[in-house]
Amino acid sequence: MYRSYSLLPRLFCLLMRSTLIDWLRNLGRVYRQVRCGPEVSFWLLPTVSQHPLSIPLSLITFLIVSHVLWPIYTAIPTATAADDELSVDALITGQSNQILLQLSPTVSLLEIEQLRSEYGLVQLRRMPGNEQLWLATVPYIVPSESNRSKSQDLSVQASDIQASQSLANVADRLSDSSIVEWAEPDYPTYAYGVPNGAVYSGLESSSENNRGSTSTSGRYIGLQAIPNDPYLDEQWALDAINAPGAWDITTGTTDIVIAVLDSGVQLSHPDLEANLIDGYDFVNEDSNPEDDFGHGTHVASIIAGVTNNGVGVAGVNWQARLMPIKVLNEAGIGSVSHIIDGIEWAVDNGADIINLSLGSPYPSRALRQTVTNAIRRGVVIVAASGNEYEEQNRLSYPAAYDDVLAVGAVNEEGQHASFSSSGDHLHIVAPGVNILAATWSGSGADYAWYSGTSMAAPIISGVVGLLLTMNEDLTSHEVVTALTNTAQDVGEPGWDPLTGYGIVDAESAILNVRAAQPTSTPANTPTNTPTYTATNTPTNTPSRTPTQRPTRTPTRTSTPVATPTATLTTAPIPTATPQVNNSPDPEGSASESTPAPRIYLPLVSS
Question: Is the pLDDT of residue 448 over 50?
Answer without folding.
Answer: yes
